[in-house]
Structure formats: structure tokens, C-alpha cells
Design a protein that fits this description.
- The protein has one domain.
- Helices cover 95% and strands 0% of the residues.
- It has 1 helix and no strands.
- It is rod-shaped, with a radius of gyration of 19 Å.
Length: 44
């Protein structure tokens, strides 16, 4: 049991930070995709 607690405390924080950053990047990528779609419509 102690090994699991040690593992979670060592790896848990980086996992949480990574998931948070991926969530933020996903939102920005959606905005970029919508901008690209808007440009293709404007170019027609």
C-alpha cells in the first residue's frame, strides 16, 4: 500500500498538470479550426 501512495504522490501531480494543459490547448485548437473554416468560406 505504501508503494501505491508513493507512486501516486510522485506521478499524480505531473498527470494533473498535463491534463489541465491539454484541456487548455484543446480549446485554443477549436478556435483555430473555426478560424480556418471561416477563412475558407470567406475565400469562396
Amino acid at each position: 500500500m505504501e508503494q501505491w501512495i508513493s507512486f501516486i504522490s510522485d506521478v499524480g501531480f505531473p498527470i494533473i498538470v498535463t491534463l489541465y494543459l491539454l484541456h487548455r490547448i484543446e480549446a485554443k485548437l477549436e478556435a483555430v479550426i473555426e478560424s480556418i473554416h471561416g477563412l475558407t468560406e470567406a475565400a469562396k
